[in-house]
């Protein structure tokens, strides 16, 4: 029986390995992590991450051929294929701070693999890493290898949170990069055989290592660039009376452009887009390509501009001050169908409003009060650390309360601010909400989920992203 071990039981390691276990009953899969509470949660009825369909998959194979363990070294030593899916956040200190990827966790995982291995292994980069990381990892592994043969593969993950299970079941493609030597090609084939259990072979793309590593950064940069492009258009729509939804629809009908990823918003969030583009910018700078670096940097800058613009528009429309005013925040996660708040635009928007002394009542169906308080009170560099290195409990911010209902959040509020596109926000009883609010009652829709005409008929003053007033 082939044995797989995955280091890192996070948003990628957990779901990806659960799907491999489900689709490959002949393979034993063990997911390991140094953060014990996460492993305990993976072994319980309350999985550590919220992802539609994940519970079902885990229930079907946990204890059969899928295991979660904190016994990292033992399972790495026993594995034939070791996936490394640890976090690779942006460096906060030292050379490349604010841009380069922090490979501390990756390096320590590689050193541990070298230390504990007693048999040949395929080591798979699942984390998103800078191009050429495999070369550095190879050096670490072979330097300490005691004659053991390690083959490094790059197999970046393209799942999106909220749709991870369906993305894993039916990926647009699986990408595997390896060395162009006979041993490298053999390793590629071994990993290809795993995916071929359920992915059509014409969707498994094999490349050299550097193309695979760079393709991951490029894919995220292209996706984020579409959002910044449409968000830049949304500013122009607000200034001219055009409607960004109509513009997106019209341009998306061009088959060369396509309709996806053209929803204007308060800005993109999530743990990866910003970090991966900054990483790309840094790589371009290091390779003497400042023009290319500044091209990609604009994608992040427009995203920052979009968040600031949203807050400024809110404050200026509410008579230039929100001081002492209750504002209902609907949605805190970085997108719907996840409880993940990493880099969520809600953090910047809430901090902007708190800076103007607003009082916030926050509701999100999947994010806990504790998480919201952490996100709003902790420094970004602390939030970027893996869970086991984060401070225990930060001091709660008094002007922020978290409630478990949108109606409760809006009671007595001057304005509602929609920051995540949860489906339930489309079907709220807005008449009831209006009746319980201060007047004039404002709605600021950062995700374009509400029916603007209907809300205006009720009496709301509605500001939607990229839409005429
Ligand atoms: P995560 O923070 O959810 O999980 C990483 C886990 O690795 C943590 O639980 C941490 O405790 C563990 N870890 C760190 N160092 C370890 C070590 N030495 N030994 C054992 N465990 C260790 O991160 P994630 O969202 O799963 O992302 C992982 C990687 O995948 C990142 O490089 C990210 O860019 C990439 N990625 C993420 C997504 C996504 O949707 N989140 C999608 C594609 C790619
Ligand atoms: C993204 C990519 O879609 C995945 O392919 C990739 O694997 C992953 O990053 C990663 O490397 O981490 P994810 O961040 O989970 O996935 O979610 P997306 O659906 O891409 O959304 C990212 C952000 O963009 C969200 O805040 C979302 O609300 C926003 N968005 C998305 C828009 O504002 N407009 C859109 O049209 C689409």
TrEMBL record:
SUPFAM superfamilies, A to Z: 6-phosphogluconate dehydrogenase C-terminal domain-like, NAD(P)-binding Rossmann-fold domains, UDP-glucose/GDP-mannose dehydrogenase C-terminal domain
InterPro entries assigned: 6-PGluconate_DH-like_C_sf, NAD(P)-bd_dom_sf, UDP-Glc/GDP-Man, UDP-Glc/GDP-Man_DH_C, UDP-Glc/GDP-Man_DH_C_sf, UDP-Glc/GDP-Man_DH_dimer, UDP-Glc/GDP-Man_DH_N, UDPglc_DH_euk
E.C. designation(s): 1.1.1.22
Domain of life: Eukaryota
Keyword match NAD: yes
Record carries keyword NAD: yes
Catalyses which reaction(s): UDP-alpha-D-glucose + 2 NAD(+) + H2O = UDP-alpha-D-glucuronate + 2 NADH + 3 H(+)
Gene Ontology molecular-function annotations: NAD binding; UDP-glucose 6-dehydrogenase activity
Active site per the UniProt annotation: 272 (nucleophile)
GO biological process: glycosaminoglycan biosynthetic process; UDP-glucuronate biosynthetic process
Boundaries of every UDP-glucose/GDP-mannose dehydrogenase C-terminal domain copy: 328-452
One cellular component term from this protein's GO annotations in UniProt: nucleus
Listed pathway(s): Nucleotide-sugar biosynthesis; UDP-alpha-D-glucuronate biosynthesis; UDP-alpha-D-glucuronate from UDP-alpha-D-glucose: step 1/1
SMART domains hit by this protein: UDPG_MGDP_dh_C
Xref: Gene3D superfamilies: Cytochrome c1, transmembrane anchor, C-terminal (1.20.5.100), NAD(P)-binding Rossmann-like Domain (3.40.50.720)
PANTHER family: UDP-GLUCOSE 6-DEHYDROGENASE 1, UDP-GLUCOSE DEHYDROGENASE/UDP-MANNAC DEHYDROGENASE
Family: Belongs to the UDP-glucose/GDP-mannose dehydrogenase family.
Protein name as annotated: UDP-glucose 6-dehydrogenase
Gene source species: Populus euphratica (Euphrates poplar)
Organism lineage string: Eukaryota, Viridiplantae, Streptophyta, Embryophyta, Tracheophyta
Underlying gene: LOC105121402
């Amino acid at each position: 029986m082939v044995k797989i071990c995955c280091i890192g039981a996070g948003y990628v390691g957990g779901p990806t390995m659960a799907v491999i276990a489900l689709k490959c009953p002949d393979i034993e899969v063990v997911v390991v992590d140094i953060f014990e509470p996460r492993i305990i949660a993976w072994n319980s009825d309350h999985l550590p991450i919220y992802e539609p369909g994940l519970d079902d998959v885990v229930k079907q194979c946990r204890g059969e051929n899928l295991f979660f363990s904190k016994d990292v070294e033992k399972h790495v030593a026993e594995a034939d294929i070791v996936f490394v899916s640890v976090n690779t956040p942006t460096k906060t200190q030292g050379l490349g701070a604010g841009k380069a990827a922090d490979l501390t966790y990756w390096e320590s995982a590689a050193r541990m693999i070298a230390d504990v291995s007693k048999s040949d292994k395929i080591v798979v980069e699942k984390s998103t890493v800078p191009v050429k990381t495999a070369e550095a990892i190879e050096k670490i592994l072979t330097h300490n290898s005691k004659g053991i043969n390690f083959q490094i593969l790059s197999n970046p993950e393209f799942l999106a949170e909220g749709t991870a299970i369906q993305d894993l079941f039916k990926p647009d493609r699986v990408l595997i990069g390896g060395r162009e030597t006979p041993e490298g090609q053999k390793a590629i084939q071994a990993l290809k055989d795993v995916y071929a259990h359920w992915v059509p072979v014409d969707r498994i793309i094999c490349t050299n290592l550097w193309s695979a590593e760079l393709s991951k950064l490029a894919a995220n940069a292209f996706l984020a660039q579409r959002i910044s492009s449409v968000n830049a258009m949304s500013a122009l729509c607000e200034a001219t009376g055009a409607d960004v939804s109509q513009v997106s629809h019209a341009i998306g009908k061009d088959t060369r452009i396509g309709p996806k990823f053209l929803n204007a918003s308060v800005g993109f969030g999530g743990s990866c887009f910003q970090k991966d583009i900054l990483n790309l910018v840094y790589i371009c700078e290091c390779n003497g390509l400042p023009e290319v670096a500044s091209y990609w940097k604009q994608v992040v800058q427009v995203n920052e501009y979009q968040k600031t613009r949203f807050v400024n528009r809110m404050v200026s429309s509410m008579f230039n001050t929100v001081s002492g005013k209750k504002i209902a925040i609907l949605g805190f996660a970085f997108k719907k169908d996840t409880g993940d708040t990493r880099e969520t635009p809600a953090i910047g928007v809430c901090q902007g409003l708190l800076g103007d002394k607003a009082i916030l009542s926050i509701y999100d169906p999947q994010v806990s009060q504790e998480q919201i308080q952490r996100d709003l009170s902790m420094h970004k560099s602390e939030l970027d650390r893996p869970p086991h290195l984060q401070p225990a409990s930060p001091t709660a911010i008094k002007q922020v309360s978290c409630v478990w209902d949108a109606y409760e959040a809006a009671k007595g509020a001057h304005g509602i601010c929609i920051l995540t596109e949860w489906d339930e926000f489309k079907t709220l009883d807005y008449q009831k909400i209006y009746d319980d609010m201060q007047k004039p009652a404002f709605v600021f829709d950062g995700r374009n989920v509400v029916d603007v005409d209907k809300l205006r008929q009720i009496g709301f003053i509605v500001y939607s992203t990229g839409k005429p007033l």
